[in-house]
Each structure stands twice: as structure tokens, then as C-alpha cells.
């Protein structure tokens, strides 16, 4: 009983700080509350997020603001076709002292930070994209045969433009799977765009204030992992993920026809963590089925691919996930997902 009381008190305390953080972020990122919540969710879950949206939708501003509000050392890399792995990881240079003695000195790359923005990640070559793989999953890099740990917390928020694909290199499945959530950013509503115009073209722009520190974010991430998950939520996650895999006994009939490859175990892990983080952000002790429904699309979209026939018929991954959620999670799930 005392453990549950302690966790509840911690949830209330962290929840209050999260509400403050959301308020600070909203000063600079206007009219995108769902995007802000999903990105915060990824950080609380200890994972990375892929931000997909057209230019000018405040993706860069969101990451910059998160760095300030969450108290993280944030850096940005503009991915281009000529970007090399050493431009991300760093390199050893040969230096000569006044005495004539020569030695190698390692110059750290921008990946040695706590919040890395990989801007337009799909514009870099596969060789450079793969330089992020080890860091994103293992939280360390290997340079000249030497392991170098990244300071915790370490998160990658990558952006991608879904409109212009000329001269881009699609991310491989192995790298897409390492993003906890895909956050799709749509155009703002009329009211939100009106607020954006007023806020950004009149007087000085609002500044966000720090709310968290790095150690406090790590403590919140540990709290997320301590939150209980009911058997019904666990079963809902398993049913959803396994039903999306063609060839599995649990796969639904239309999945066999429309899906080329489905989500792996990382999708279930992402849902387990993200549902807990969503409950924490709402001040609840444990997640429920509604959390699974709300996070089905962000957790599964980038972990599934349609067959050629399904694409030719005009189907989409989002529509398939909606139908999948409706069949496995109950009525009303299709519209929510």
C-alpha cells in the first residue's frame, strides 16, 4: 500500500511539472498540443521520435524549445547528401606540441549532447544515416575502436519532409524501428494560424523557461517504468501488434492481403512505455485501453509496410491501422486511431 501511495505522490509531482512544461512549450509552439504531447511522451518513455511534416510547421522550433524547457544540452545537424559519419560522431586529429611531440586528440561531434535534432534525416546517405543506429539503440558510439558513452539522457528527434522526395534516401526499416513514435504534423487550424501570425509578427516573441533538468527527466523516465500495467492493457497491446503481422496465427484476414511486413516486438515495447507515459501526463496511476487506442497510429505507422496491391488500390497504413484497432480494441477505436 505504501509503494502505491509513494508512486501516486511521485506521479502527482511529475504531472504538475509536465503541465508547467506544456505551458512553456505552448508559448513558442502554438496550436499543436497533440504534437507537443507525443514528443514529450517519447522523451518520458526514454525513446526517440520521428517528426514528419511539411516545411514551416515549427519542427525546429519545437526541438529548440524542448531543449530549453527540459533542461537538456541540445544540438542540431542539418542532414545533406555530402554529410559524412565523422561530421556526426567526431574525429581524431593529429596535433603537434611546441616540443615537437605529436599526439591524437579527439574532437567530439554534435552527437555528444542530450537532445539531438537530425533535421531532414532522409537527405543524408545511408552510410551517414547508419552512424546514428548504434547511438540511438546502445547510447554509445565506437570511434577508432574505442567505446565512447553518450551522457544520459540521450534522445534523437529527427525531422522528415513528406512532400519533396527528390534526392532523398528513404530510411531503412532497421532505423525506422528505433524511433519510439512517429509524430505526424499537420497544418494548423484557422484559429491557430491566426494566433501564430499575431504571436510571431507583433513585438518580441515569447521565450520559454526551463522546467526540468536532465536528472529530473531521468527520474521521470524511471517512474514511467515503475507504473503498473493492467492485464487488460497488456493483452490489448499484444493482440494489436500480433494481429498486424502477416503469417502469424493471430493475423486478421485483411492484414494478410494488405500488409507486406508488420511490427516487431519493439512496437509492443513502445506501446507499453508510451501508454504509461500518457497516463503519467494525465496524472493517472496506470494506463487504460484508451491510451492504447490513442497511441496505436504513432507507434505502428513507421513499423508497417503495405503490399503493392494494397497501395495500387489506394489503401494507406493509417487506414489499415484504424481498421486493425477497431477489430482488436473495440468500437470507436478506428476513428481514434
From TrEMBL:
Any one Pfam family match given in the protein's UniProt record, by short name: AAA_3
Record's InterPro entries? ATPase_AAA-3, CbbQ/NirQ/NorQ/GpvN, ChlI/MoxR_AAA_lid, P-loop_NTPase
According to the entry, every stretch annotated as the ChlI/MoxR AAA lid domain falls at: 257-318
Q: Which GO terms describe its molecular function?
A: ATP binding; ATP hydrolysis activity
Q: Which residues form the ATPase AAA-3 domain?
A: 48-181
User: What is the protein's name according to its record?
Assistant: MoxR family ATPase
Species, as recorded: Pikeienuella piscinae
Amino acid at each position: 500500500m505504501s509503494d502505491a501511495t509513494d508512486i501516486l505522490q511521485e506521479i502527482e509531482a511529475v504531472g504538475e511539472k509536465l503541465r508547467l512544461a506544456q505551458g512553456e512549450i505552448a508559448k513558442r509552439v502554438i496550436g499543436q498540443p497533440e504534437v507537443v504531447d507525443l514528443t514529450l511522451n517519447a522523451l518520458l518513455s526514454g525513446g526517440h521520435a520521428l517528426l514528419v511534416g511539411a516545411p514551416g510547421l515549427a519542427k525546429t522550433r519545437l526541438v529548440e524549445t524542448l531543449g530549453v524547457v527540459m533542461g537538456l544540452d541540445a544540438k542540431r545537424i542539418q542532414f545533406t547528401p555530402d554529410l559524412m559519419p565523422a561530421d556526426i560522431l567526431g574525429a581524431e586529429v593529429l596535433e603537434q606540441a611546441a616540443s615537437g611531440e605529436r599526439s591524437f586528440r579527439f574532437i567530439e561531434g554534435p552527437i555528444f549532447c542530450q537532445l539531438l535534432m537530425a533535421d531532414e534525416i532522409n537527405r543524408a546517405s545511408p552510410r551517414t544515416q547508419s552512424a546514428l543506429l548504434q547511438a540511438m539503440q546502445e547510447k554509445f558510439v565506437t570511434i577508432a575502436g574505442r567505446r565512447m558513452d553518450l551522457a544520459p539522457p540521450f534522445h534523437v528527434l529527427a525531422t522528415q519532409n513528406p512532400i519533396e522526395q527528390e534526392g532523398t534516401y528513404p530510411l531503412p526499416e532497421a532505423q525506422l524501428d528505433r524511433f519510439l513514435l512517429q509524430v505526424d504534423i499537420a497544418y494548423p487550424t484557422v484559429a491557430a494560424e491566426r494566433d501564430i501570425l499575431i504571436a510571431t509578427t507583433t513585438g518580441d516573441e515569447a521565450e520559454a523557461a526551463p522546467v526540468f533538468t536532465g536528472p529530473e527527466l531521468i527520474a521521470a523516465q524511471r517512474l514511467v517504468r515503475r507504473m503498473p500495467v493492467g492485464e487488460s492493457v497488456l493483452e490489448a497491446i499484444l493482440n494489436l501488434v500480433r494481429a498486424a503481422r502477416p503469417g502469424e496465427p493471430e493475423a486478421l484476414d485483411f492484414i494478410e492481403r494488405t500488409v507486406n511486413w508488420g511490427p516487431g516486438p519493439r512496437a509492443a515495447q513502445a506501446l507499453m512505455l508510451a501508454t504509461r507515459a500518457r497516463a503519467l501526463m494525465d496524472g493517472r496511476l496506470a494506463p487504460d485501453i484508451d491510451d492504447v487506442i490513442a497511441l496505436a497510429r504513432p507507434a505502428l505507422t513507421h513499423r508497417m509496410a503495405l503490399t503493392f496491391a494494397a497501395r495500387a488500390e489506394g489503401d494507406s497504413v493509417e487506414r489499415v491501422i484504424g481498421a486493425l484497432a477497431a477489430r482488436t480494441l473495440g468500437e470507436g477505436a478506428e476513428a481514434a486511431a
